[in-house]
Every structure is written in C-alpha cells, then in structure tokens.
Amino acid sequence: MENESKITYRRVGDYFIPNLVLPPEEASVTLGKWGMMHKDYLLKNKRVLFSALLTQGKLYQHCAEVEKQAQDMFDSLVEQMKATESVTEQLKEESQLEWVCCMSNIESRAREIICNELIYI
Questions:
Q1: Which of 19, 51, 80, 105 is the most exposed place for a label (fewest CB within 10 A)?
Q2: Distance CA 5, CA 83 (A)
Q3: What is the rounded distance in angstroms from the CA atom of residue 102 to the CA atom of residue 59?
Q4: What is the CB neighbour count within 10 angstroms for residue 49?
Q5: How far does Cα 108 stand from its chain's mean position?
Q6: pTM above 0.85, yes or no
Q7: pLDDT tens for each residue of 31-42
Q8: How far apart are CA 38 and CA 31, in angstroms?
Q9: Do 34 and 119 form a contact (C-beta atoms < 8 A)?
C-alpha cells in the first residue's frame, strides 16, 4: 500500500516533529483583542470545540467572525449608551474629566456585555 500522506517531518533531538502549515485562508487571518480572547477561552474551556475547529482549519476564521461581531457590538453599545446618558461633545468641551469618567464607565460596561454574550460562550 502506497503512503499517500504528504506530511513532512523535521528531526528535533530524538523526535520527529511534523511540519504543519495552516491553510492559506487561515494563515492570512489576523486576530484582534476580541478574537484572541475567544480563542484563549476555547483553548482553556472548550477543548473539544477548539480541537475540532483547529483540525478542520476553521479556528482562525471562527475567531475572526467573533472579532467582527464583537467590535460591531462594542461600537453600537458605546454609541447607544452615550446617547442614553447624554455624554456629548459639549460635555467633553465643558468638563473633560467628567467626560473621561463617563466614557470609561460606558466602555467598561460594553466590554463586560460583549464578554458575557459573545466571547465566553
């Protein structure tokens, strides 16, 4: 029976390590904050799903989709909360410290919502 495997190996000490390469569509994906957080969560808490996505060559694609959803949701939530709480450019001009405190609070709450609804699921 002919070996159809095209996996090559390199020798490291007494061991042969496979030379694994990501598929082109996976290699070109760059993950940001949200995607990396989701990937780490999968690795630590959902190992079966992590392994399945990794072996199918879909892990980075999946994390990139979560990244996009999370960033869109973050931007939307921040804008909605700013409007609801009247955090405007006028407030920024009149009281910079208050504006910074309000924005920090809003962004913190938005991050918590995203983590609970998209990242850590």
A1: 19
A2: 59
A3: 36
A4: 13
A5: 17
A6: no
A7: 999 999 999 999
A8: 10
A9: yes
